[in-house]
Amino acid sequence: MLQVLHTGRGGGQQGRYQSPALSLQGVTGFIHEFNTYLSSAGRFDRWQHSPGQQATVLWDRHNLLNAHGPPEDYAPTLRALGFSHGEPQLPVPHTHH
Question: CA 91 to CA 89: how far, in whole Å?
């Protein structure tokens, strides 16, 4: 997992925070433990990479998911969660706080 901080607080520096290799259980535990923070902090992009599947999911600061890798690995799960194909739309204007 990698988090890229775009906007520091109080003049803090931008930065990259990378975890050591984690199992699926470790990633899931981290997400459950820090769910409130992860879903409300809009200063980061979050990357999860699976070397075995050669796949990466990016959850960006605009709350968009980007899936890199074999689409057949993502599409069934995303459809089951209620997602559908479409064009991302950001509110204009939008701000970051």
Answer: 7
Q: How high does pLDDT run on average in the chain?
A: 84
Distance CA 95, CA 25 (A): 34
**30 phi/psi in degrees, rounded to 5:** -60, -45
pLDDT in tens, 49-76: 988 888 999 988 877 888 888 888 888 9
Separation between Cα atoms, residue 83 and residue 32, nearest integer Å = 21
CA 16 to each of CA 4, 36, 44, 50, 94: distance values in angstroms, whole numbers, following the listed order: 5, 20, 9, 18, 24
The H-assigned helical ranges of 8-90 are 24-33, 35-40, 71-80
CA 67 to chain centre: 10
